[in-house]
């Protein structure tokens, strides 16, 4: 998490793209048809599959702030694990000839 303190450097070196990214990120994660809590739980599931420690922690904090429970976090872990495992199983079909 210490490296996140270096994010402003990217903004200094590439301000337009960085500002556009943060604006998009904020818009995508804001409450809309899908409530904020659910968006944060989705973000955790994606972060678990990409194994981004930064995203896991930041979205864990966001989910808790939005009212997520530990049980919801635990279920999110299993959703992510099932999807990752399912990808391995379904892509395993490419190993076999007709």
Characteristics of this structure?
98 residues, mainly alpha
Structural notes for this entry:
There is one protein chain. The chain is built from 5 helices and no strands. With 98 residues, it is mainly alpha-helical. The termini are far apart. The model has no long low-confidence stretch (mean pLDDT 96).
**Oligomerization state of this entry?**
single chain
Radius of gyration: 17 Å
Extended strand count: 0
Largest sheet: none
Number of helices: 5
In whole angstroms, how far apart are the ends? 49 Å
Share of helical residues:
over 70%
Quote the average pLDDT.
96
Poorly predicted tracts of residues: none
Name the helix and strand elements from N-terminus to C-terminus, one letter apiece.
Answer: HHHHH
Specify the overall morphology.
globular
The computed structural class is mainly alpha
What fraction strand? Answer: under 5%
Write a brief caption for the model.
With 98 residues, this protein is mainly alpha-helical. The chain has helices at residues 7-13, 15-29, 36-50, 53-65, 70-91.
């Amino acid at each position: 998490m210490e490296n996140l303190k270096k994010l402003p450097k990217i903004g200094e070196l590439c301000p337009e793209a960085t500002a556009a990214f943060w604006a998009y990120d904020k818009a995508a994660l804001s409450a809309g048809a899908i409530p904020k809590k659910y968006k944060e739980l989705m973000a955790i599931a994606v972060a678990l599959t990409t194994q981004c420690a930064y995203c896991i922690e930041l979205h864990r904090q966001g989910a808790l702030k939005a009212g997520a429970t530990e049980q919801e976090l635990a279920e999110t872990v299993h959703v992510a694990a099932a999807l990752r495992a399912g990808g391995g199983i379904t892509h395993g079909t490419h190993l076999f000839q007709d």
